[in-house]
Design goal:
The chain is mainly beta. The protein is about 10% helix and about 40% strand. It contains 14 helices and 103 strands. Helix 6 packs parallel to helix 13.
Length: about 1500
Amino acid sequence: MAKHSTVGNLAKDLGLNDKELRNRNLHILSEGKKQYFTINTENGNLYVNDRIDREGICGDSTLCVINFEAVVENPLNVFHISVTVQDINDNVPYFLKSNISFEIIESSSVGTKFYLGMAEDPDTGMNALQNYQLSPNQYFILEIREGEDGNKYAELVLQKPLDHEREQTLHLVLLALDGGEPRKTGTAQIWVNVTDANDNPPIFTQEVYKVSLKENTPVGSLLLQVAASDSDEGSNAYVTYSFGNTAERAHQKFKLDPQYGIITIKEILDFEETEKYIIAIEAKDGGGLAAHCKVEIKILDENDNAPEVVIASLFSPIPEDSSSGTLLTESALDREKTPQHNLTITATDKGTPPLSTHKTISLQISDINDNSPDFEKSSYNLFVPENNPSGASLCTVKASDPDLDRNSKITYSILTSNIEDLPLSSYVSINSETGTIYAQRSFDYEQLREFHIQVKAQDGGSSPLSSNVTVWVFVVDQNDNSPRILYPSKGDDGSSLFEMVPNSAESGYLVTKVVAVDADSGHNAWLSFHLLQATEPALFSIGSHTGEIRTSRVLLEKDAVKHKLVILIKDNGTPSLSATVTLNFVFAENFQEALPEMINQSSNLDHQSELQFYLVLALALISFLLLLTMTLAIMMKVRQSGNPKFLPCIGPDSFPKNNSMFPPNYEEGTLPYSYQLCLSSESRKNELTFLAPAVQIVENVSCNKSSEPLSGSVGNNLNSNIENNDQVINLAANGLPKAISRQIHYSIPEETEKGFLVGNIAKDLGLDAKELLGRGINLVSQGRSEYFALNYKNGHLYTTRRIDREEICGWREKCILNAEVIVGDSMKVYGVEVGITDINDHAPTFQLETLIINISEHTALGSRFPLYEAQDPDLGNNSVQGYKLSNSSHFSLVLEASVKGKQYPKLVLERLLDREELASHNLILTAYDGGHPVKTGTTQVHVIVLDANDNAPIFSQRIYEVSCREDIPIGTTVIRLKATDLDEGINKQMKFSFHKIAAETSQLFHLDSNSGEITLVGNMDFEEAPFHEMEVQVQDGGGLLDRANLMIFITDVNDNAPELAITSVINSVPEDSPAGTSVALLKVQDKDSAENAEVTCSVPDNLPFLLTKSYDKYYSLVTSRTLDREHVAAYNITVTAADSGTPSLSSSIVVSLKILDTNDNPPSFLERVYTFHILENNPRGASIFSLKADDPDWGENSRITYSVVEEDIKVSSDLSINSEIGTVYALRSFDYEEFQKISFLVKAQDGGSPPLSSSVSVTLFILDQNDNTPEILYPSAPTDGSTGVELAPHSSEPGYLVTKVVAVDADSGQNAWLSYQLLKATEPGLFSIGLHTGEIRTARFFLDKDALKQSLVVLVKDNGQPPLSASVTVTVVLADSIPESLTDISSNSASIDPQSDLTFYLVVAVAFVSCLFFSFLLVLLALRLRKWRTSHLCDSGDINFTGVPVSQFMGINGVQAFLHSYCHDFSLTTDSQKSNSGFPKANSSNILPSQQPCEMKDPFLVAEDINSSHGDSAVTQVSCVCQI
């Protein structure tokens, strides 16, 4: 029916008129969630609210009824209404599967049925499904059947055999018809796939494949491809290839691809090993049917074997001094030149291409001792770094002896000699076997520079031979001496000395020079200077090679006066060694200015005595320096006047010739002075030429010649000599047969044991047996194995091992073994041929012990199946002659002959097979040969009957019924279906499936297709469906199937709690309502059945409500007594419904009821009297406190207003109250000192009608605050601002009361508690004050050192928070009377320390002496400058000695200033160990005028002269004279 269609007049049917409808509130209550009907409250008509579908509501039920209730109120009545829904033909029949697919094997028999299932039609009666129709076809007809439930289903019946090769797919249309008007139909497409049956075996294109190929064909080459075809399809047509009955060696040589039948070469083929291979190939399809063929492979010979050369007789070795012509030699032999001769014999065959074999005969030459040892070098130069470890290996000398064995065994020794009166053995030793020279001590370059030794090498021959060689050992200098600093030297106490630098010094000013030397030589003595640390790094720089320290810039005001420099002096050795020196520089214009910085003193002295000590010390020091300077100046003056040529450099004998590397001393002068510098003969600068050995020094000691490292040894040229002296003899292959004098033939049977007599060689050759040993007869066998041996005593030929013809010759009919007999004295060769005859020593064998043949049970009679061929290594009649088969009712044996007459067995089917009757047949195939006695071999033939799908699966039951609870968990197994199929293999593999099942049911159950197990996958609900019906089917691998019905009955469990629904409710009632007033109408229902659906309703006993049953499932909720809103303002009434199931389930619903208020309660305060406190000095308008009154009424009845009832007129000016919230405010700031409390009344009144009120008494107390500081009453402050004075006698004892401080505080309580503290005192430990009394008393006796006037500051503090305080100063004078105290007070000057006068005089004395000292220096400097203008300065010679500085300064107690030029003396020798050198510096300071050049006494030696004087310890002296 359409929406809003009229069903009927419900009001009329219930007997209600139109006037009652509005007052009675007629409405309907539907069961379930969907509201199918609605009612018009004005006329009472019942309408359709939504589209009604009978099938959607009732499903397959024949009767469809919709139930609901109609409810009317005032009074409350409930009516049950039922509406029946009739069916119309509004649904067409439909199939669950619109496409039905079958796979039917072509071997299925006529009459086989295939279940198609049934169509679904939701309509009922005649409108439901009535019939089926099938589209016309020649293979199938339709059969309609009716099930036990009355439903019709269709089955497809095969009426004509199928043929997969003719027609593979069939398409049919199935039609379903109902009986309605008009008739409606539904269709399903049927697709029948005709599957293949394995009824065709594979067929090879050829029975025998023949192929020829050359031996040595590469591995992996394609031999041929066998091919077999099968008319079947799918897996039945899939052919695989494998080797059949084939020899094992064929398996090793060839590889067969199982998929494509390609035969490839697996190993190299050898004609000499096997000439022919016969391989059996089997082709098998996926159904187990097989076919066989043979492949004959012929191997073609190639010339791949070179001739073999065998040495029959050889004499070796021979002495090297053998005479010419001995043993076929053509000339004299020399073993040292050629220790052996390799004679190459070449044999060549006539193949294409020809192959040849080379046989080399090695002829050894024995040795005699005819060669003495020979050293690799005529002499050895050995360079050893000094400080080498004792016992270290220095070098290895090597001598070679071309002789052999003992004649070439060399021993080494050192010829005895002495080095500087010490035996040579104390310096070096030698290993007598290896020639390694070891150091017996650690060498020192400074003591021993070089020495030489004589090494002797002697061989071990009889009458030994020897030779000598000279080894020169040179000791190489190492960097083992650190640089030594000559200047500046440290003070006696180890401290660094000072240098003075003028403040006006410009950039580049020469401050001083660091002088250092190194005892090493060469580059190890090259020194470099580095500025390691400086107070101001950018202020100074140092020459890296000169050591000159110069200023880098001018001095700035911010720069420090005193500077400290750390200089690093580092040599050029590896690793480099270094030394450091510390310099202190002071910037000052004169000595007096620099002196304070030079003296190590503290800037701030604690006591005057220490200052005086240092002043005295400074005065003494300056005075000493002044006297010393004057004395030196006088001495220098006297010296110049007495000997005007006094200043030339020290004479040539300055340094004695000894081993010292440094001069014994160096001089320090004042004005002037000179120093001596010792330099080695090796310099880093290129101005001087030094003697140095032209050698290369390496870390590891090595012996070399011409500066080349020693490596390797004398090469042995024996190999090259042998190659040059090889003699090649070519023997033509065609001349070989001419050397054979005679051919002898023997014949023996195979399988002869070891020692079998073959024949008499001596007799057959006509030789005397007694002469065999003397004539050098030798038997040479061909091949790798020796089968024969010759007895040299009697000339008999014997076998040496068992001879197996099949092992030696394989399938060849003729088997011959060849050997040669060589007569040594005549060099003749005789051929021997031994023929091996065959015996019947092998039985026929099959490759496999069991042959498995798969034959389908539908195979036709007369079908033939190849069997494996037996193998017999014997020949002729001894090989396989025939086959026999054991008795069988189903099979027979037939032999087929090949082109060559060879017989092959085949199995013939004589009787039809039935796998269900007998699944396999075991036969025995026997092969026999023709030997005597006859030997046989057998193999088991196991025939497996392959199954054909001729049996359909069958369910164990036609109808399955099972009951289960609705609450079983998901995953539970409901039932396991069982079916049987008599077939086997894939035909027996059954698949289970649902054939007919409702959509809702398919969501609940899962059927395992393999096991037939039905498990629960959804939640079952008895209330939705009490049972489930479905149809299941089972289908085997061949397409045959069976069907059965399954009924699953659901057992109800109490899984649904009762449902409560409120149909009508009143939300609020007045609190004065009478008992029995209706509050709500409730409906109760339970979806369970039987006792699980019996429901009992209840409400809590402590609530004033009852439940009364109105109609069937309806209950009324009413009041049981009078209500009180102030006691309970609202009720949440819990209505509980419980069923009678086990366990019982319940549900509840809450009905909310609000109680309306009446004004029956006045406001009430929480307390009868209120007391509050407030601190004084409160801000005006501040909130003091709040009052709260409660009224249990609600709404306007509970709204309270507050007011102050004035008992005192003053209250209104002090306080005010908020009428709504009851907060009291202060209208002014209260003062505790003015009044301490306020009392008043507060009234609270509600807003009801009539209003109700109440009052309460309130008292407000004012609390004190700490707002007043202490006031000091005594001692009072004087009007002039001075402090009061108190007297204390000198004789006062501890505890004497001096005075008392009196103070008060205007506050009260703890704020007025005062405490006294002594804040400050002239002598803190002399007085004490009482903490709470303020009394000042003496703490101890007065002492003489105590001041006569004591000032005390007393602090008076209250106990408030925060505390307030005041202070007063009290002056106490220590005196016995008032006049005495006045004298002490007025005396304020202190006595002057008499020590200050002494300090003043000391300072004046130091200043005077300093001025005198510097004045003397200035005068002395002026006089010196005046003489320099008239004198000549020393000038440099032709050689520039870069790096040796000029130092011009004078020294005063370590303080030196540059004043004049100076000269240096140098002694230069070619031996740095024995000589000390000093070089003159030509240039002078930049600030002085140029000087006259120095006079050269002796010229320097040129480089050639120096080199020529190498080894001479004489000193080459250079002197210069500097005149001032």
